[in-house]
Amino acid sequence: xxxxxxxxxxxxxxxxxxxxxxxxxxxxxxxxxxxxxxxxxxxxxxxxxxxxxxxxxxxxxxxxxxxxxxxxxxxxxxxxxxxxxxxxxxxxxxxxxxxxxxxxxxxxxxxxxxxxxxxxxxxxxxxxxxxxxxxxxxxxxxxxxxxxxxxxxxxxxxxxxxxxxxxxxxxxxxxxxxxxxxxxxxxxxxxxxxxxxxxxxxxxxxxxxxxxxxxxxxxxxxxxxxxxxxxxxxxxxxxxxxxxxxxxxxxxxxxxxxxxxxxxxxxxxxxxxxxxxxxxxxxxxxxxxxxxxxxxxxxxxxxxxxxxxxxxxxxxxxxxxxxxxxxxxxxxxxxxxxxxxxxxxxxxxxxxxxxxxxxxxxxxxxxxxxxxxxxxxxxxxxxxxxxxxxxxxxxxxxxxxxxxxxxxxxxxxxxxxxxxxxxxxxxxxxxxxxxxxxxxxxxxxxxxxxxxxxxxxxxxxxxxxxxxxxxxxxxxxxxxxxxxxxxxxxxxxxxxx
Length: 497
Known about the structure:
Layout: E1 8-13, E2 18-25, H1 26-31, E3 37-38, E4 41-43, E5 49-51, E6 55-56, E7 58-61, E8 67-70, H2 72-80, E9 91-94, E10 110-112, E11 118-120, H3 121-139, E12 149-155, H4 161-173, E13 181-185, H5 186-197, E14 206-210, E15 213-218, E16 224-231, H6 237-252, H7 254-263, H8 265-279, E17 289-293, H9 296-305, H10 310-317, H11 320-325, E18 335-336, E19 339-343, H12 344-367, E20 376-379, H13 387-396, E21 401-403, H14 411-421, E22 426-430, E23 435-442, E24 453-456, E25 459-470, E26 475-477
Parallel strand pairs: 1-12, 12-13, 14-20, 16-22, 20-21
Antiparallel strand pairs: 1-2, 2-3, 2-6, 4-5, 7-8, 7-9, 10-11, 14-15, 15-16, 17-19, 18-19, 22-26, 23-25, 24-25
Helix pairs in contact: 2-8, 3-4, 5-14, 6-7, 6-12, 7-9, 12-13
């Protein structure tokens, strides 16, 4: 549900890797749709401030099972715990969002923490939403009655209805009023934001966005018309992270990496953070070189687990050519002091499988007759900042304009704010399912199946007739009302012997 004219709209985005919120007041929206505020500074809990529009999607739970911290603060606190011998009693959850993609969804499902312990998933999601909601409330400079706030929670369009409903339950558990909560589909929110950016949008403009993909046409009214149902897959930055993990396994062996991840979690988190920074620089330039600080604990773990030297292991892995190529000016070893250097070509190899999946999917959409005339491809979200992704899209789709907005990483949040003020921004959607009701009808010979013939009070009736109200893929304008149908219940006499 949604308030008709909310004084304030707040969008909360629980992302796979990073999360955040954005908001705007009604008077700001009326003056300028794009005047949207986002939080720019997050605390790490150690009196240090992180300049970032989003904070890591990480939840830390204390030994009593209570929420302790979120984001940078959670990731800073957790590595400090081993010093106090408390680590095993604390639970850190990271990048847990995609458990709702193609999973058996239930309120009792569990999440696995970094240390391997399990905790109720709904509670972790609710803690995340509640933290961002309360962080927003503390940052607000002027007083606003709770009843005047419209909350918008973003979810991937490719999730099924059970996953979307799970997120709604998490929001309700966090304290959001159900009648002030709206669910926005992430690709639709991004499209709404980008459409607002495209000045003087023409009625024949069509565009799509990835990785959770949607295709919209800008109508003459300025509203968006859905041309193709949202689609996609689990192709994004986290899939690239998995490729990096596979690379480390090839270099340091499966056994050493398991031991390293089990006993040196803080060092593993730091290595992941370094990769997160480096992967945003990967381009098609083969001459690029990428350096990573090699934790001493990883080198020591490998030395303890393996009988051969690290140099010999790299050679056996088949990676020595790519790794050594980056080290000719320093040493013939892939490990220099406490640095590990990887060539640009090897780093590209981590990105290309994911990029290939995305581009192949978009090519399939572009070939669909319903999507003819696409003029723009809009790359939004954190992964869209990848120079390699942008280069591959421009090389593959030369006949369209590929756009990456300056606020690409904030597109979903900001679009969700606009959607909260203007829920009719998506003027026409395609029905995701066929809707109707099963009923009885007068039996017609030659038309109905004789096996479905039943007698009710002397009348020949056909059971199991499906009265269709809306068909799958049918265009449904915003606010459309279907024709009124009247159905009467059939009463049967219950006879007890």
